[in-house]
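Action item from last week, closing it out:
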Amino acid sequence: MVVMRVLVTKLANGLIVVTENMPHLESAALGVWVKAGARHERREQHGVAHLLEHMAFKGTTSRSAARIAEEIENVGGDVNAATSVETTAYYARVLKENVPLAVDILHDILAHSIFDAAELEREQHVVLQEIGAANDTPDDLVFDLFQDTAYSGQAIGRPILGTRETVSSFAAGDLRDYLATHYRGPAMVLAAAGAVDHEALVRQAERLFADFPRDAPTPPPPAFYCGGETLLRRDFQEAQVVLGFEGRAYHARDFYASQLLATILGGGMSSRLFQEVREKRGLCYSIYAFHWGFSDTGVFGIHAATGEEDLERLMPVIVDELRRAGEHISVEEANRARAQIRANLLMSMESPSARAGQIARQILLFGRPIPNEELVERLEAISTERLKDLANRMFHQCNPTLAAVGPLSGIMPQQAIADRLGFRAATAAE
């Protein structure tokens, strides 16, 4: 049995330092993960979390944008960042002797960015190009439409990039306000994996990160899953379709069962949907299932890309496979899905970048690192009866969400999908 080598220290201001030493490596992956993302924006702030991530590398009180890039690349390292619905991450990969430099740069961009007006204008233009590219990319656009339909009118449903109007409107003060409101000790994790010394990292973090406030930020409003339909007819080669349902939050009892069910239905070439839709019927090139968990909700979905001539036949087949999941799931299928998830977990332990991100997110979500053995035990405890029960509750008792982009003649409407699954919306009297 592999023993976790994860060490955790909480600083006086609530920031957590977590490390996993991999003594066979000569490099380390490290970063700062913040429990603040697109979901934490007010409507007029839409896109500010992502723009802030971009602007973090555009100059501090002691380093220019060019110097930030040069210092990390002079030692053969790299630095980057990413914004998601609920978190933002700033991370680096360096040789072990350069870990202190990487930590210093990460702290500098988070604590001392100047948000120069000329740099801000240039980066706003870059993000506007990014928004344009996403709108011209059908498989990106359909997921934005899906999330917005599932959580209509809520920050959790809005595209992470923002809109042309909101992004163009931001000034340096908007970035500073968002950072000051959400980048606080209790919402931050400094994580590292690879050739890293925990105590040395803690000492440096205590010296550098003590200036972040110790009071926790206010959490975002609770999410409310809506469901519904958004169809965007465009002159594309293929129709991109996402059909989904309310999933399970990270802390929910059925979170891991939902992950397992998604793998059974569409987690690989042996999955039900791939075999039935592509291999047996040839109705599409790409099809898979997914389950995304958030802090208080989740989404379970199926994505497919197909030609307009096959769309009319494709949708009923997908819906019927969802119905069948509530009727029969074999032990063999469940064991194969468990093996896939277990392999992914163990393979991630071989990548310092994957491990740093994994343990950081676990700290933010659960307050502790979770050993892979514990995750595997949870998966092993899920019976086929429980999976069938989950499928029945998820697909038959939840208003579906349908989003599609492209040539859509013949697509099965959301209401017809709901009817085929036996969904009936509750009335006020109920």
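Closing note: The radius of gyration is 23 Å.
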